[in-house]
Write a structure and sequence with these properties.
The complex is a heterodimer of chains A (608) and B (159).
Chain A lengths: L1 H15 L1 H9 L3 H6 L31 H12 L5 H5 L1 H10 L12 H9 L4 E7 L14 E5 L11 E8 L6 H10 L3 E8 H11 L4 E6 L3 H14 L4 E2 L7 H12 L15 H10 L3 E7 L2 H10 L3 H12 L7 H4 L3 H18 L7 H15 L22 E10 L2 E13 L12 E13 L4 E13 L2 E2 L7 E13 L2 E16 L4 E13 L8 E13 L4 E11 L4 E13 L3 E12 L3 E13 L1
Parallel strand pairs in A: 12-14
Antiparallel strand pairs in A: 1-2, 1-5, 2-3, 3-4, 4-6, 5-7, 8-9, 8-20, 9-10, 10-11, 11-13, 13-14, 14-15, 15-16, 16-17, 17-18, 18-19, 19-20
Chain B lengths: L1 H11 L27 H9 L2 E2 L25 H5 L3 H11 L3 H9 L4 H13 L1 H4 L7 H13 L9
Classes of the chains: A alpha+beta (608), B mainly alpha (159).
InterPro entries (chain B): DUF3015
Pfam family, one (chain B): DUF3015
Protein name (chain B): DUF3015 family protein
Chain lengths: 608, 159
Amino acid sequence: MKGIFTLLALLVAGSAVAAQASESGLADHPRWKALLHINQGTTWRYQGRSYVDDPDFFLHEDGATEPQAELEANIEQLRPPESEARCRFPARYRFLSQQLDWTDDGGLSHCADYVEWRKAMPQARVALIFPASYLNSPSSMFGHTLLRLDRGNDEDGVWLSRAINFGATVGGEENSILYIYKGLVGGYPGYFSNVPYMNKIRDYAHLENRDMWEYQLNLNESEREWLVAHLWELQDIRFDYLFLDENCSFRLLELIALTRPESDLMDSFRIAEIPVNTVRALDESGFIESSKYRPSKAKELDALIQRLSEVEKDLALGLSQEERVSETEAFQALAPKRRHLVARTAYAYLRLNNREGERTQDVAARSLALLRLVNRTPSVKEIEPERPVSPKKGHGTKMIAATGGTMGESGFGEFQARLSYHDWLDAPAGFLKGATIEAFNLQVRKAESDDLALERLDVVNVRSLAPRNQFRKPVSWFVNVGLDRRFIGNKRHLTRQVQGGGGLSWALGPVMPYAYATGRAENNSAHDPFVSTAAGAKTGILWYAGAFQAGLDAEGLYYQNDDVSFTASATLNLPLGSDHAIRASIEREGGRERAETEFSLSWRYYFD
Amino acid sequence: MRKMLLAVALIGSSFGAQANAPGGPGCGWGNMVFEGKSGLPVHLVATIVNGTSYNKTFGITSGTNGCDTSVPLAYQGKNMLAQQGVLEEVAQDMAVGDGEALTALTVSMGIQPRDRGHFKQTMHENFNTIFSEEDVTADEVMTNIRNVMESDEKLATYS
């Protein structure tokens, strides 16, 4: 009864103050909140207020924390025809004029700068771009995301598109420790930038050899208009850049959510925005229409090499050194199309090797000579690399595992949790083969004879196998920082350790053998010196068999104080769908006085 | 605690890298074909610290020297060729007869879709004239392209 009365009262009151009511409701409108970048509980910081601190972004002095006050200030300043504020906030103007039915007030026609910019900005299509992992830079290990605005359709290509990127801006004088610290607490400004997309293709696919995935979004014309108009509002607006959550990918997610505020994009809490998860979130919310694979220059070379016979490979190598090889009998004996392929390979190889560093006259001359050879031999079509599984289809980036096993005479149970992201025996679809990128991998173990204890904590564990062949001679490497256990004397001690190494690897079909030289520094309670150092070697084989992954690994370390440790292991990982895997492992580990054999069986669950 | 912080820092630095600066470290370096990537140390620094040490770019500031060319429609072929690394891609596409960079050139020069195939074929056939030597600059390449177009019945209408 009370409810009905309230309802009636509301109805009566509502019609009386219709104008104010619609205005007061507007501050809670999802699009208004999106336009002000209000955190609706998606990340830790700044909940219930705007992410933006920059006063230039608001028309009211408390606009960052009071959306209602900001709304009123906007209505007041955007309402008069020829208002200057409209030219700064065309998307807010669009919102208010639609909601409050402002008609015949001249719109934005007086905003010459905006109108010119707007005409120049492409907006026929919008795509989310995902340059894949780049292991050789710590800042790009998990990939990156940016937006692309296209001028036309497929026929026009995308080289003339624009790239919208969100990144931190760093003063040159600061060192990286301060940078990391400030990155965490929010000391660095982040800005949106708007640059030619061809520059991004050059940076990622050509210079850093990263494959790129281009996900076309299905935004309609009106939705694209929201996006582009709002981009203008973000020009020179300062955000805080936080590495874990409020990073490049999160800001793009916000931008896309603006186009469809009713979507569920920002509904779930996002603890750390890994770029590939942004792609998946968009996919799950139905934004992705199609995807395109843009192989790196290195992948293009690999695809060419695969088509050549051994003789042709030698010819291509020779040709890249000396164009005169094209006059030899062996080269002339090839069919014209084979000559084309060999010349293409030689050129691709020469350019890949000389993409960095100063230009030399000799390399430039050889490059042109090879292109002329390519030019006068008949073109061969369809030499593009095979398209791998899209990163959005890979296993979840977080993982928990339950393990049971025995070590020596004693049984144990173990729990594992990994914040991110992939190890080289996990299902490789959608990830880099031969790469491990782990952060915050925690294992706690309860053995029959012991209390619950920390077994292992990888703060960072990165391993990169870069296969070598006649043409490419990359170096493989690994870095591991964290805590682990090993036999010192008769007991397994917890050690705080840093280790790393460089090495070589090869790809023989699905099998990847590798060998590393390793170094390790550790702190443990059994050794006298605060830090013990060790050197050693590590070798093994990975086998990507399609239905499962298997690995053999052996490692030995010799310590400065004459201690030794070794491990040898065989592991089998059997994925069950994309979310689960069974992993079985046998490991022998030991030191000077004692060694034990461990059998274990795990169930691994990948999520998020 | 310190260890934890460092840990968080290390993970954090991995997200959302912006490996290169707007405008590009090689900005203004030149526009010859087959250039290398210059300014590598700067690039590395920008990569490692996950950001850019350059001025932000956004609006309609103009430049044609291989820096940020932000006037989106003003490529007109020549400006596009002046972007670092583009000339090399165009050269490769012309040698082969097709490719994305060559397509972009046709679009930026205003070649109608029905004539693009012919344009590409003509460029392919005149590769040696257009890329006359390894030191050729973007300006010279553009002049050579125009000359080739002028002596072609169909393409002459565009130049």
